[in-house]
Amino acid sequence: MSGSLRQRQKDDRRLRMIHAALELFDEYGFSEVGVVDIAERIGMSYRTIYRYFPSKEDVLLGLVIEGNHAFLDRVGERLGEGPLLVTFTDAMTEALEELSERVGEDAIRTMSEQIDRVESVRARALLHSADMRDRLAALVERHPEYGAERHSEIHLAVGVFGAVAAEAQRRWRSAPSAEGSLAGEFRAVMAGLPAVLPSSPEAAY
Do both 93 and 180 map to the same domain? Predict the structure, then answer.
C-alpha cells in the first residue's frame, strides 16, 4: 500500500470519528457522550479512537486542528508572493473551502456551536489558536524574505489577522445557518479593511 493511500485512509477514518462525535454531541450533549459511544456509532474499537485523539475534547477540536495545519501549509507555500495579510487570508480561505468541501459547512458550524457550549473545550480551542499564531509568526520569520529582524512587522500582521479571524467568525456565527460560509466571511472582512484604515500614516493623527 502506498504512503499516500495509507494517509488518505487515515484521514478518512479520522473524519468518520469527527463526524460521529459531532452527531452524538449534537443529539445528546457533550457531557453525555463518551469515547466508547463514538466508537460504537462507527463500529470501531474505542482504542482505535484513542490512537487518533487523546480525548473526546480533541475529537471535537479535530476540525480546528486540521484546518490550522492546512492553513500553515498553504502559508508556507505562498510566502513572498504578496503582502502578509493577503497571504494569510488567501491561505485561510483556501483551507476553509477545502474543509467545507470535505465535511460540509454544517459540520463546521456544529463544531463551532459545541465548542462554545463547553467551557473546557473553549479554553483548549483558545490555546490552539494562540499556538497557531505563534507557529505562524515563527514560520514567517524563517522565510528568507522576512527573518527575525522584521519581528515587529510580522507580529503586527499576525495580530491584525487574528482580529480579522475573530470578526469573520463573529459574522458567520450570527448569520442564519443556510447563508454564507466561514471562508466567505474571511474574504468579506479583508475586503472591508481599507474602509477603516487611513490612506497614509499621517492620516491616522
Answer: yes
Domain boundary among 37, 55, 73: 55
- As a whole number of angstroms, the distance between CA 125 and CA 86 comes to 24
Does residue 81 sit in the same domain as residue 116?
A: yes
* Residue from 4, 15, 17, 3 nearest 47 by CA: 17
Phi/psi at 66 (nearest 5 deg)? -60, -45
Domain that holds residue 104: 61-194
Answer yes or no: do 168 and 116 share one domain: yes
Q: 164: closest CA among 142, 137, 145, 192?
A: 192
Which single residue is written with the C-alpha cell 488518505?
A: 8
Question: Is 0.70 surpassed by the pTM of this model?
Answer: yes
How large is the angle between the packed helices 151-174 and 105-117, nearest 10 degrees? Answer: 100
Cα distances (Å, whole numbers) of residue 142 to 9, 32, 150, 181: 32, 44, 11, 32
Per-position pLDDT tens, the chain of length 205: 555 777 778 888 888 999 899 999 989 989 999 999 999 999 999 899 999 998 889 999 988 888 899 999 999 999 988 888 889 999 999 999 998 888 888 888 888 888 988 888 889 888 888 999 999 999 999 998 887 788 888 999 999 999 999 999 999 988 876 677 889 999 999 888 888 766 654 443 3
